[in-house]
Amino acid sequence: MMILLLLFAGFSARTWMVLPPCLPDRVSDHPAIPLEGVQGVKTSGNPQDSLLFIFWNVENFFDYHSDGKPQYWTAGRFYAKCDGIAKTLLRIADRYGRLPDAVGFAEVENAFVLRQLVSRTLLRKLDYRIVHFDSPDHRGIDCALLARRSTLPLRAAVPKHVPDSAGGVMATRDILLAEFDSLAVLVNHHPSQIGGKAERRSLALGRLAALTDSLRGAGVRRILSVGDFNEDLWEEVPGQARNDASGHRGTLKYNGRWEKIDGHFAEGFARVREEVFADPALLEADAAFGGQKPRRTFAGPRYRGGLSDHLPIVIVVYF
């Protein structure tokens, strides 16, 4: 753990707060896409003194057309999940009195699901653009980002592969790097804890640390890294409270224990707040261990009608 803390010595310890989505514009399937000067893309500075971000692992947000999809993953259930995600983001917006400037996702299968999310739900009138690249993950899931054109104009986006121990490309989710006028954002979904993958997670963290070093070297002053790190990287940070501002202790519940594996690292901001958005609509009774747990879309093949085994996090950064 000390090695991980040293890797992120340049980042602030987390503090705590969350928001909505976008229109079917897409950045995808190319190594890097500079956007300055593209018609309709505003690149002026953001006049706000803060920005609102959401990160959410939306668990198996699959295209219902996909080959090999389970028979029980139907178009109706897919669109119900789209509606539920959109309504959750709007409940966050209502709570914080503003739309989110960006929403990062993990476990998104492809651009189709994002286009449906922003064009077939209550988000369809909002000014979000989609940033997505297909990754080499063996499950076919990727990181993605929705960013508001009016408040967070995109300058460039690129996927960053995670190297394996042999120097090749690890079959996992790429780190999504998006650059804006005022900051850079890295969206992460690091290898799972299942199957003893600690070395793979260490390689992903090393890749993230190298990317932040490179951004610093290029003169980027504000860097925000969000994601599902599949590990509580904040547990041993000195002086770091285990509860966030909402009083909630985790983003995922495993064998009766809440774990805080989703979060952020930030540098270059005057202040950062983070909160786990533990909305009652996202929870259900935990019959096995007591209390509550996130309400999943499926428990095995059984349809539960929920959205994810993770709760979203909300992050507000102040300049």
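(the above was protein one; protein two follows)
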Amino acid sequence: MKKFAYIIILALFVSACGSQTNKEKLKDLKKERNEIQKELSAINNKIGELEQTIKEKGEKLPSRNITHVRTKKTTYSPFRHYLKIQGEVTSDNNIAVPAESPGVVERIYVEEGDKVTKGQKLARLDASSLEKQMEELKKGYELAKTVYERRKRLWDKEIGSEIQYLQAKNEKERLEKQIESLKEQLNKKTITSPIGGTVDDVLLKEGEMAAAGRATFQVVKMTDMKIRGEISESYLNQVEKGNPVTVSPTHVSESFTSTIKTVGQVINQANRTYYVEVAIPKEIKNITPNMIMDLEVLNYKADSAISVPVNIIQKTNKRRFLFVTGEENGQKVAVKKWITIGKTYDKKAEIIEGLQDNENIIVAGYQNLSDGEKIIIE
């Protein structure tokens, strides 16, 4: 019981000390406030004296209660909206040349960076076994051809049997077909370029085994390149063939302009986009496949529109407004204008309703204005 009483007494003591401490803090704060008020009063008195001196010298001073603003006149001008996307340089003539037949690489005729023409030899695979077969077939064919010619001469003179003549003819023709088939196989042992262009990559070495269908060379035709990008389906039907595009290579300072070459008609189910292709003008150099490009694609234009800086537009109760200048009893005042905006781009907003040509919109000093408040235009 005594222990409980001691606890109560201790709590009351701590509370009293805390209360005393709070009172002292409050007293100090009031003292500091009074000192600041005295300083402020002295400053205001000094300002008043200075203003009086300025007025006595014939100068006019604006009221300190009037907000100073800057304005800009509205005008009709073209407004453009662009989509910012990224694209990759591609080429329909970026070809991975495959080996059509398996075999050991006997010789490589080109190096990376070499210019090649269509049909030019790139490499040759070992064809020794096929060449031996060809020699044997040619010997057999020469014999079959001789037998056929003799049988034919006899048959033309109605000597010998028709069966013997037909068998000789059939044997000769069979060997001719085999030779043609073997020639095709031999031709496949030589890898040639399907297009004229530049050898971008050599993917095999002499002595290696080349597999049928495996890529052996990468050949690129640098003059037939384009940029392929993807646009969200929400902008479907806003981008058309021929729309202007500003292209900025990510690693090159100089940008260039081009146009939309192709617009995809199918939505990609994986990312809900459709593709666009941008032509690369022939005079543009130093562009290579797989480069990344920043694209600004025109998707909206108004030839005559009023646009204002986005930052001066304010919002209340889901409605947007800005301030223009007006006049009341010979004094400039701020007038609140409710507006409807369209597209926004490059820190500017298109105004669809609420503003007319040649109005003075307030572009600086608008933050704390109220409708009808007096202003001074700087």
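Reviewer note on protein two: Helices lie at 2-56, 128-156, 162-187.
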